[in-house]
């Protein structure tokens, strides 16, 4: 199958590599506004052809949009303008309500399948892309009844070939859940990095001492603003809701420490330990 | 060398296994108040002999105390009471000022080397112990001038055999740095787990959706209160200081979102990205 990947970074590149490895894609058009990324993607064998958006879309059965969520909102209507009833468009965005809203009344809305694979790393660009990606993680398809049956079937095939198991929910529910499960983690990680950078002026000491625990908690703070500012912007209300709760949970720890209430501290920790049973 | 390990859990057990593998230890006495842990440690080949504290200390050249930091404060003076000038005692605690203070005027103070290997996992007990531990991480020796030269030399040998590189600092500095680099990570992780457990009542959804990012940020929330309440207690002032800063950093994200000040949001994230250069 010929596919177009719009945005040939970590996610778009990893999808291309994996679909190629599984012999699901046999020709990949790469579209990006970053010339360097396009050249890298070509020389790394991620794409077969550097292409204009129009040419890529016109000649592909499947079009995957893997760019920041604000840009997806802009580009998606133009892509749908170009497709016919035998082509399918998927995105990979971390927020869904705004994207779905942007094409709500588009005559080709049913060629679009809102898709979110719950995988990523703190790296970006085609050089970070890998065929060893996605495996065992979940992917969400939103508002499935608004997509044509054959488009949905193709999206399921894509998920299968990426070794993702599928969940179905509304775009609104998706954005609530991802605020809890993904977006807040990034904010706490960024804020933790800023805390340590603010308080710990001796950067050499951070580097020397950083335990595996710290590295793990702060890993997401390496993620780039180009991707995350638009996510926070589009999911503002849900994220603020979770962030308020998080600050209030931190205040409980603060209060327990200040009051030397170590029984409360133990309760708070024991409650948090329940995550062990949920995350295995 | 005959060694005594007091507290045969994740850390004590991993030290025993690794020192044994490196042929540094050829006989290991295991001391623990948890009978099950002792039996597990024996049958897993971590220790050679289940022993009383007194017998283990009397018959070992090196005594390693690997129990929670409050218990270390209690036990350390009794251990020093039992040793002569050819024996060395090390602890592995995540806080140091309180432990050092507890034996400040002990006549055998110079047989003790305050030691902190910056490695651990969210698991506990001898079944989690592994010889594949510590490698490449840092260890801190505190207040080195208060230890006898030969005791210090032996501690260096231990660090070398555990593949740890050594840093030297005062107990006070150690406790400030670990508040930044380790203790606050645990609090944010616990608070994040509690946030998600509070807001996300659908536990099945957490399980299904949890991205690798979330799992990584919340990993430390699996750590047990038996170990961490005493650490928070003994390092209360430093942790409160960092926790206040962390809450104020989170409030900046909150305010940027509330005011839709996306330039500030980008600045906050770009600043956090600096951690990439420091942690490689």
Automatic annotation (TrEMBL), chains A, B:
Question: Which organism is the protein's source?
Answer: Chryseobacterium koreense CCUG 49689
Keywords of this entry? Oxidoreductase
Tell me if Oxidoreductase is a UniProt keyword of this record.
Answer: yes
Which GO molecular function entries does the Swiss-Prot or TrEMBL record give?
A: NAD+ binding; prephenate dehydrogenase (NAD+) activity; prephenate dehydrogenase (NADP+) activity
The record, for PROSITE patterns, names: PDH_ADH (PS51176)
Residues of the Prephenate/arogenate dehydrogenase domain: 1-280
Set out the biological process GO terms recorded for this chain's protein.
tyrosine biosynthetic process
Q: What is this protein called?
A: Prephenate dehydrogenase
Question: What Gene3D superfamilies does the record point to?
Answer: 6-phosphogluconate dehydrogenase C-terminal like domain (1.10.3660.10), NAD(P)-binding Rossmann-like Domain (3.40.50.720)
Would the keyword Kinase be found if you checked this record's keyword annotation?
Answer: no
The superkingdom listed in its UniProt entry is Bacteria
């Amino acid at each position: 199958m010929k596919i177009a990947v719009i945005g040939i970074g970590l996610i778009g590149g990893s999808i291309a590599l994996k679909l190629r490895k599984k012999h699901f894609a046999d020709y990949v058009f790469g579209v990006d506004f970053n010339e360097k990324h396009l050249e890298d993607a070509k020389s790394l064998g991620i794409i077969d052809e550097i292409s204009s958006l129009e040419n890529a879309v016109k000649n592909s059965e499947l079009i995957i949009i893997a760019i920041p969520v604000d840009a997806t909102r802009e580009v998606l209507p133009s892509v749908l303008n170009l497709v016919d009833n035998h082509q399918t468009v998927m995105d990979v965005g971390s927020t869904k309500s705004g994207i779905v809203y942007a094409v709500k009344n588009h005559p080709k809305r049913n060629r679009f399948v809102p898709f979110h694979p719950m995988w990523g790393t703190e790296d970006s660009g085609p050089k970070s892309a890998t065929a060893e990606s996605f495996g065992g993680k979940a992917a969400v398809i939103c508002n499935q009844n608004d997509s044509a049956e054959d488009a949905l079937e193709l999206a399921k095939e894509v998920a299968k070939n990426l070794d993702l198991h599928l969940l179905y929910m509304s775009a609104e529910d998706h954005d609530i859940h991802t605020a809890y499960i993904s977006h807040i983690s990034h904010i706490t990680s960024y804020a933790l990095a800023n805390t340590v950078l603010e308080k710990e002026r001796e950067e050499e000491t951070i580097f020397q001492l950083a335990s595996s625990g710290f590295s793990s908690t702060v890993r997401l703070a390496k993620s780039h603003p180009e991707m995350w500012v638009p996510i926070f912007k589009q999911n503002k209300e849900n994220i603020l809701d979770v962030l308020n709760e998080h600050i209030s949970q931190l205040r409980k720890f603060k209060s327990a420490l200040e009051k030397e209430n170590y029984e409360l501290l133990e309760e708070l920790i024991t409650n948090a330990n329940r995550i062990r049973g949920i995350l295995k």
